[in-house]
Amino acid sequence: MTGYASIFVQAAFIENLALSFFLGMCMFLAVSRRMETAFGLGLAVLVVQTITVPVNNLINGYLLAEGALAWAGLPDVDLSFLALLSFIGVIAAMVQIVEMVIERYLPAMHQRLGIYLPLVTVNCAILGGSLFMVDRKYDLPESVTYGLGTGFGWLLAILLLAGIREKLKYSDIPKGLQGTGIAFVVVGLISLGFLGFKGITVG
Amino acid sequence: MRVVTRPAPHIRDAFNLAAALRWQLIALAPCVAMALYNTGLQANLTLERLKLEVAPGWRGDVIQALGVGLDPLSFVAAVIHGALYFLPILITVGVTGAFWSWAFATARHRPPGQGLAVLVLLFALVLPPALPLWQAALGISFGLVVGREIFGGIGKNVLNPVLVGVAFLYVTYPAQMTIESSWVMVDAFSEPTYLSLGALQRPEALAWVATPWELSFLGLVPGAFGTTSTVACILGAGVLLYTRTASARVITGVLLGMVLTSILSNNLPGDAYFSLSFHWHLTLGSFAFGAVFLATDQTTSAMTDTGRWIYGFLIGALVVLFRVANGHHPDGVMFAILMGNIAAPLIDSLVVRANIRRRARRHVD
């Protein structure tokens, strides 16, 4: 159990994709002006991340990795050069499927996430999560935890940024730094605060 | 009549920004006194332990010229030796801070910002005594410019500039901010001293030097300049709470969070730090100082009443978490309060939203 807790804490806080690896920055900065939109996008990332990382884990484990096709009688085939391409394809496909399912069964949620779901396809935090998963050789339950952790971490990070950016309207920022400029500085400072988590061990 | 509108805050009351800052300065007086006395006391104790007759460097020359000696039992000797450590840092931080304040006020055509004295004093008090002066200058530069001035000066910043500067120094020069070398007063002395072990403030070290808790409560232990004494912080808290400069909700929240989380950690298996009880967490490191002077900053703490409880609790819990589960930051207080500052706008926003929803439900029909 501590193994999963450790993966979750590491993914959400210590190695937060947005604040430690600076992945998904374009959307992180563009959609964090208001709390509602930030929450919508963050939730979409959380949902898609939790689905795509395990799915990519299965695809990598049974189709792409070296010797993964042994079940089909092809133990010498190594398709891992296709990983990047297949992961992006899987992400795009999963996003479409998730969108259709949500639209059919959870219309209220679709109203909320609708416009963000297609955006998530090109969010590098999603692809980054899958690539880290392969790099660290997670198994299926671990990759579910990892997907959940990174998604939660990204959601938390964008909410924190949106909270601060809403408060910034009371500030008196120099002209050249207004808007995205100060957002970059704030992201850096949030990231500085998150360094407090660095070195935490669970279990 | 010609009315000149000055920039916000437009408080028309005897209790305005200037008064709040004045009370903060008064509340900091006990901590400054301890910075002068305790730093000198610890230095003199170390020299006595090492059986040295002369303090190293230029400080030894000054002490000899003044003829006060290095007797640890002498109050005057301790205060003078302490001042020789504290004043250079305070002056460096003050001059650097004044320069940036002036530079931004001039370049942006704004009236010079208030609150520099409080900021400079707070920043100097949380630094370790043997920090190189140029690092102190760098720290206050980063804290003041990136933490406050580019947001428009006092009252318009999001994060406490003291914490931004200190966190910057922690991350950039961990050797000088945390480990032994910055606390040892004698060059090239490598054997662990009372000072170096106390600086790390791990319970093992405390067990080794067998520091009684009362000594730690009074603050007569090695540590940053002004943060060792819980008594001095309690005096300061009294002033701040009586004048309502600081929020009692924040301070109580921090204490509650710390006590509950440390009780939780005491019941978990782990190393010596897990079993550290809450009265030690209270006096160790800069916990009391942070809870009273840094977490309660009016600009960067949460603004709503419920939010202040949550904000305080979060800080207290994070301090224990960082101390117990994290080998990187022996103290953890600065990062915990910085995280609290980062989360404060989100906490406020959630509290306000919850309130709106609650009141809307009351008027459904």
Describe this structure in words.
- The complex is a heterodimer of chains A (203) and B (365).
- With 203 residues, chain A is mainly alpha-helical.
- Chain A has nine helices and no strands.
- In chain A, helix 1 packs parallel to helix 8 and helix 7 packs antiparallel against helix 8.
- The radius of gyration of chain A is 18 Å and the shape is globular.
- The mean pLDDT of chain A is 87.
- With 365 residues, chain B is mainly α.
- The chains are: A mainly alpha (203), B mainly alpha (365).
- Chains A and B meet through helix 8 and helix 9 of A and helix 6, helix 15 and helix 16 of B.
Describe the protein's topology:
The complex is a heterodimer of chains A (203) and B (365).
Chain A: H1 2-14, H2 25-30, H3 35-64, H4 83-105, H5 107-113, H6 116-121, H7 124-135, H8 140-167, H9 180-194
Chain B: H1 17-49, H2 57-66, H3 75-107, H4 116-125, H5 133-147, H6 161-172, H7 174-177, H8 194-200, H9 203-209, H10 213-218, H11 230-242, H12 248-266, H13 278-283, H14 287-294, H15 305-325, H16 333-362
